[in-house]
Amino acid sequence: MNMGEPTDTLVRTGAIRLHGPDGFEGMRRAGRLAAECLDMLTPYVQPGVTTEYLDDLAREFTLDHGALPACLFYKGYTKTVCISANHVVCHGIPSPKALREGDIINIDITVIVDGWHGDHSRMYGVGAVPFRARRLVDVTYEGLARGLAVIKPGARLGDIGHAIQAYVEAQRCSVVRDFCGHGVGQIFHDAPNILHYGRKGEGMELKAGMFFTVEPMVNLGKPGVKVLNDGWTAVTRDKSLSAQCEHSVGVTETGVEIFTASPKDLFKPPILAGAN
Ligand code: MF3
Ligand code: CO
Ligand code: CO
User: Fewer CB within 10 Å, N or C, the chain?
Assistant: First the structure.
């Protein structure tokens, strides 16, 4: 701590915050609203719909619920959500371009409710989706689930990355290295970085009260990524399909609490559910 600085300053200091009941309550409300927003969008994801229209719906929903869109004007970003289609890995910018049958898209939203950030993303299928795309989505969701399943006090960050990487690579897919999850709470992107690859037993020890996101990006091809000239859109170098899903979570005394669980059980939208 620097002398003369308030201890509750809302800047990223690198310190890992351990939150109490008020923090959990704040994150439950923020996470729930993010999930409700993505639930709301589900029926609108159709061929011919523009990603800009989906962004408008998300912004209006957020503001109508008394929350703030965290991405809007964040580091110069000018939209409420990121929409990443097909070979876009993350940070796709909503545009007047229409969705096409067979596309898979990730919609990523962060809402701020009473100062708490609910950061959440999921995959949607546009109409009928080819088998290989549905399989990639399945692998990505299972990778996230396996990462979340190892979270408890005493586990290490490397255990999360290892659980995701071991599963994803066994399915002959790859884990993106260039983007990671992050501490979350009253700060959008806080310490620590949450890598989606790693080794068991390595990295920081988890403690009850830590809040962070887990948001693996999984490619059908190689893990390499490049960012387009717009400064945001990240795509696979080999043009292979990419998928992602993200939860904001808290470490509890016994395990993990998912703040962004879908009230309508639409985390994996119906068109993509149950593919094998
Ligand atoms: N929601 C993204 C994340 O999961 C961050 C998007 S930042 C933006 O961390 F500016 F591109 F929106
Ligand atoms: Co995030
Ligand atoms: Co996000």
Answer: C
